Amino acid sequence: MRTSSNPAFRNLPTGQGGYAGFDRMGGAAAGGAAAYRQMEAPAGYGQAPTGERALTIDDVVTKTAITAGVALVAGVLTALAGPAFAWLALPAFLIGLVISLIVIFKQLSNPALVIAYSVCMGVALGAISGIFNQRFPGIASQAIIGTAGVFVGMLVIYKTGAVKVTPKFQKWMMGAMIGVVVLMLANFVGNLFGADMGLRSGGPVAIIFSLVVIGVAAFSLLLDFDSADQAIRAGAPAKLAWFIAFGLMTTLVWLYIEILRLLSYLRSE
């Protein structure tokens, strides 16, 4: 029984009637340790009821494209608005975080909430990107291209089976996720007491750590793809596509922020 480290996918249906695992809100937090275990299906997320259309790959692709597109448009508009709107980053991120927690814990496949989350994350990332872009012209575009490239690359890897999503792979990913989060928290606490571990200082250690985090985020996409694949094979209702799109969006937010951070380190050298 395979699960995903992404919290949004913790309760997706599998071909055996079980459910998967979830994590990640990009930026301020990059993960949590989702339990590696089979869970009971929450109400409304079993097989599609008689007469209701079952989930297809086209549903997942369409809803994911919509959520990513909305975030991209919101981000570009916010960045183009200029430094005067940089203050929107924190409130937009916090609102997005609240919405994500509602979606995750209530297991809601609500298009309005998913779109609202995408708008909030787009505004937050747009404001942050605008600040970075002022210091490093073109860095935001590079980060977008890098994120899209990683997404497509990992999708190809998943579809070709170059890397198999197995229970062992899942356990390794869980361990990597926990390790990354622990190091981030340790670095944050250390900074509060004047003990900088160098993980975010922009030096060689920070570059290596950022590459590791990007690698973990990238390979976690394989788990997300697999969870979505299992939901399709299980005959889940078509409305679940919004929930799957939300889960993928959380991973992309995390990946984008980390790529943006890495590029800023490299451009500072």
* Molecular shape: globular
Structural classification: mainly alpha
- Report the uncertain regions: 11-45
Q: How would you classify the quaternary structure?
A: single chain
Tally of discrete structural domains: 1
Please write the string of helix (H) and strand (E) elements: HHHHHHH
The percentage helix is 55-70%
The chain-level mean pLDDT equals: 80
Largest sheet descriptor: none
Number of helices: 7
- Give the termini separation: 45 Å
Number of strands: 0
Rg, Å, rounded? 18 Å
The fraction of residues assigned to DSSP E strands is under 5%
Q: Would you mind describing this structure in some detail?
A:
This protein has 269 residues and is an all-alpha fold. It has one domain (7-268). Helix content is 65%, strand content 0%. The protein contains 7 helices and no strands. The chain has helices spanning 57-81, 89-106, 111-135, 139-160, 167-192, 204-233, 240-268. The longest helix is centred in the C-terminal third of the chain and has 30 residues, at 204-233. It is globular, with a radius of gyration of 18 Å. The chain starts with 56 loop residues before the first helix and ends with a helix. The relative contact order is 0.22. Mean pLDDT is 80; it is low at 11-45.
